[in-house]
Design goal:
The complex is a heterodimer. Chain A is α+β, with helices and mostly antiparallel strands.
């Protein structure tokens, strides 16, 4: 069965913060429904981009490792987490993605996962 | 079997190929695989049909031949993915089954999926169901061929990789999914009615195919006013088909068409459907119902002079609100010319932007300039229209008008005909 990454974009925030308690509960509700349906194959919530480090290796493997504080791109809406969803087709994946709270607090990008 | 000699094989293969492709897609579960299979089948058809004659059921023949070719291809390549091995086993199970009208509809909804870019949906459906070449689609949509080719390749790749399903959506999703499908049907009709290339002005099979698809949609969604409006629009436009070109294949203007030769049954059916569509629109008709109402004004008028141009102008204004587009304004300008004169109409046309590659924009300007006796500018506009590579009959028509303009002595008042545009481009 095909798998899709549902990439959640929105406010750059610390989700453990008490101010985001409402969304936290929304995610719990979604998580329970999705788990019951057995469609979630993985996923994670990410710490804010203030904790991010971007790495580039110059000139190929073993070359100079350049580390930069911050995310790859500075944008107002950032990747805050993702789910790995298993679905029969894109319509089914979209139907699940539309229930992720990030879809109304921000946006969710659905991308098919490469079959290895 | 019928004789192959006097059959337009290319046209036949386009339409029948669309049906075969839809059935092959259902059967093989993969659009690209189905396209490859159909391509192989068409190669065989082009070898055999001219000698053996066209089979009685060309789509069925193409489907079965394509199925066999797909099986050969999959076996030969051997290394295809597991799902394609499953397809081969499925192929061995025997019959493809009859081509289903639903197959075409399924393929339409796939090609019109909201996950595809709007411009890609129409292009893809025209290629798969209408069997049009990429350069023809590019011409119809006023973009360079390379741009259109890339658009189609990207869309097909997304369908395969993201697994856009091949099915008719459930009822609750239909309202959201429908406008794109209607736009596709209309684009197929427009392409057939005002063929953008080649020597035939009206590609009859494409018009028939579009009407067939519109009827299919009305069966599926009998209560949707825009579906009814679309069918009405196609019927009312197609009713004039036989009078749009003369025996020499030359373009005949709306004003000069033999109204007695228009199809009375199609006009009656179309006008009846307009009433239904407008009634069900609850005072807020959509773009197809409005265009159908305009077409009904033309089709039910006893003569060109008796046409209710003020009503047409009013309907176009309404249409502009629903669908602000330079092509709609260009069409309204024709009504403005009849109501307020060519000067007012030229002002409308000259305000439009983005149509400088569209031959009808130049032709319409030329028409108004002729009527204002601004001959040098009219000549330039005709030449600009000709430079847009219109279809062959349109080219001859524009050339003839340009020649007439150049040959009439300056002292003689020149009475030019009207280039009245009688097809609105897809919204």
């Amino acid at each position: 069965m095909p798998q899709y990454a549902a990439l959640i974009y929105g406010e750059d925030a610390d989700w453990t913060d008490e101010a985001h308690k409402d969304q936290y509960e929304e995610y719990n509700t979604f998580g329970q429904a999705a788990a019951a349906a057995g469609v979630i194959r993985g996923g994670a919530g990410l710490q804010p981009t203030s904790t991010a480090t971007t790495i580039e290796v110059k000139g190929g493997l073993g070359g100079e490792v350049v580390t930069t504080d911050g995310p790859f791109a500075e944008t107002t809406e950032v990747l805050g987490g993702f789910y790995l969803i298993e679905a029969a087709d894109l319509d089914e994946a979209i139907a699940w993605a539309a229930q992720i709270p990030g879809a109304w607090h921000g946006k969710v990008e659905v991308r098919p996962v490469m079959e290895m | 079997m019928t004789e192959g000699d006097d059959v337009d094989l290319g046209g036949l293969l386009r339409v029948e190929g669309g049906q075969a492709l839809a059935t092959l897609t259902r059967f093989l579960g993969d659009l690209q695989l189905a396209e490859d299979a159909l391509h192989d089948a068409v190669v065989v058809a082009l070898e055999r049909w001219p000698i053996e004659g066209v089979p009685r059921n060309p789509a069925g023949w193409l489907t079965v031949t394509g199925r066999n070719k797909a099986r050969d291809r999959l076996r030969r390549e051997g290394l295809r993915a597991a799902k394609e091995e499953a397809a081969v086993r499925h192929l061995d199970d025997g019959d493809v089954g009859p081509e289903q009208s639903d197959d075409v509809l399924r393929l339409m909804f796939t090609c019109c999926h909201p996950a595809l870019a709007p411009e890609a949906r129409v292009a893809l459906a025209l290629r798969t169901l209408g069997g049009l070449r990429t350069d023809e689609i590019a011409r119809a949509f006023l973009v360079p061929e390379a741009t259109m080719a890339q658009r189609i390749v990207r869309a097909k790749k997304k369908i395969a990789v993201a697994k856009i399903p091949y099915r008719v959506p459930p009822d609750h999703e239909l309202p959201a999914r429908l406008p794109a499908v209607l736009a596709v049907v209309y684009a197929i009709f427009t392409e057939g009615y005002r063929a953008t290339s080649g020597s035939t002005l009206v590609r009859v099979e494409l018009c028939d195919e579009a009407i067939r698809l519109a009827r299919l949609l009305t069966d599926l969604l009998p209560d949707e006013p825009e579906v009814t409006g679309l069918l009405a629009l196609l019927l009312l436009t197609d009713a004039r088909r036989s009078t749009r070109v003369d025996a020499q294949g030359d373009l005949v203007l709306l004003a000069d068409q033999d109204r007695l030769a228009w199809s009375a049954p199609m006009i009656a059916e179309g006008a009846g459907l307009v009433e239904v569509a407008l009634r069900r629109s609850a005072g807020n008709p959509g773009v197809y119902a409005l265009q159908a109402a305009i077409a009904a004004c033309h089709a039910t008028s006893p003569s060109h002079d008796a046409t209710d141009w003020a009503e047409i102008d009013r309907l176009y204004r309404h249409l502009e609100v629903r669908h602000p587009s330079p092509v709609v304004r260009l069409n309204r300008a024709v009504a403005v010319a009849e109501v307020d004169g060519p000067s007012a109409a030229l002002a409308v046309v000259d305000q439009l932007e983005g149509l400088d590659r569209y031959h009808l924009w130049h032709a319409t300007r030329a028409d108004f300039l002729v009527r204002l006796d601004r001959r040098d500018e009219a000549g330039d506009a005709f030449r600009a229209a000709l430079a847009c590579q219109p279809s062959e009959p349109e080219r001859r028509f524009l050339q003839r008008r340009l020649d007439t303009l150049l040959n009439v002595p300056r002292s003689t008042p020149y009475v030019g005909g009207s280039t009245t545009v009688d097809v609105v481009d897809p919204p």
